Amino acid sequence: LSESGVPQLVQPMIWDYAADIDVEGKVQLIEKYRRCGFSKVWFASAFKGATGVNQSLTLIGHHLKNHLEWLQVASRSPEDVLEGIALTGWQRYDHFSVLCELLPVAIPSLAVCLQALKNGGYSEKVKENVEKLLGMSNLEIDTYMR
């Protein structure tokens, strides 16, 4: 890869939507990319649509944990390596499935994930901020929103 010149043309994106990603494995992968000549990498998370083929509602806690894990990867990586994070929101679990987790039901999850990234974590203050922004009285993280 180093000799091909590709690292000067592109930036790799590391995808993982799990609630318990292998943080150490991701840090090691970033180091491998750096040794190959890539100066920057991107992360890809999901705020909806990556947990089941027939999900109709979004479980915010799963996606929040994913983003908190990515924050751990970022904190354990060289300071200048992360170019950004793409928050994906899948409409289909795969190309052969029906639509799932439409955007309106996932807006609270998107708001929580964005605020967690912006604030470097999740706290009661972040929760209250999301509730205020969305005009909600009780944001439910570990159960499905009604």
Automatic annotation (TrEMBL):
Q: Which InterPro entries match?
A: GH, HEXDC-like
Molecular functions per Gene Ontology: hexosaminidase activity
Can you tell which superkingdom this protein's organism belongs to?
Answer: Eukaryota
Q: What is this protein called?
A: HEXDC Hexosaminidase
Q: What is the lineage of its organism?
A: Eukaryota, Metazoa, Chordata, Craniata, Vertebrata
- Gene name of the record: Hexdc_1
